[in-house]
Amino acid sequence: MRSGDVPMLWKEAIVKPLYKKGGRTDPCNYRPISLTSSVSKTMERLIRRNIVSYLNKHSLLHDSQFGFRNNRSTESQLLEYNRKLLGHCISNKSSLAVYIDFREAFDKVSIPKLIAKLKYYGIRGNVLKWLENFLTGRTQKIRINNAISEPMVVTSGVPQGSVLGPLLFIMFINDIGNNLESDFLLYADDLKLFGTNPDSIAKDLDTISSWCDNCCPEQV
């Protein structure tokens, strides 16, 4: 940790395609399962615990995010959503809602921009150096039955199959709602935008589109 070095073995992943449904010759019909180093996961848990403690202490994660956070779930998000809609009903106002699905969100994260956001949220010193090393120079191989591919360099995205990946993602997407006028709720990369003003909703969609263009081109 002090040196910030991460062994190359910790940055390698074996990806096993898991068939879902549909034509078996279509790669889109498979879910990639990434297998990563167990030893790396032990270190990641220690780092994750410290980062989460720091983020909670300083209230740095947006309250709208319900994914990958302790004591939060899809159910608690739904209760919050219903509470907001009930307020609209009591005020005799119609509710508008837009559900946004980000395509391959975890895989499209810009690593340089993620590192910049880690710095912005106050991640410094050896932890930042370790994370920077952890995120860069990663490789993956595809395994199908007993055949395995040559390693491929991963140039974007949070590490799938890792302990830190989900936390790093919600830190990356944390500022997506900073300039929105309407209410919104997040569950990891699923965004629910809602309110009573159609003009505000339309403006917010443009704002979200601009955020995607800046952070993750061709994301939505």
Verbal overview:
It comes from Caenorhabditis japonica. This is Reverse transcriptase domain-containing protein. InterPro entries: DNA/RNA_pol_sf, RT_dom. The chain has about 220 residues and is of the alpha+beta class. It is about 40% helix and about 20% strand. It has six helices and eight strands. The chain has helices at about 40-55, 75-90, 110-120, 125-135, 165-170, 200-215, and strands at about 10-20, 30-35, 95-100, 140-145, 145-150, 150-155, 185, 190-195. A hairpin with a 2-residue loop joins strand 7 and strand 8. The radius of gyration is 19 Å and the shape is globular.
For the largest beta-sheet, the strand count, sense and barrel status come to: 5 strands, mixed
What is the 3D form?
A: globular
Distance from N terminus to C terminus (CA atoms, Å) equals 36 Å
- Poorly predicted residue ranges: none
Annotation, overall tally of beta strands: 8
The H/E string reads: EEHHEHHEEEHEEH
Structural class: alpha+beta
Number of helices: 6
Share in β-strands: 15-25%
Helical coverage, percent range: 25-40%
**Which value, in Å, is the CA radius of gyration?**
19 Å
Average predicted local confidence, pLDDT: 95
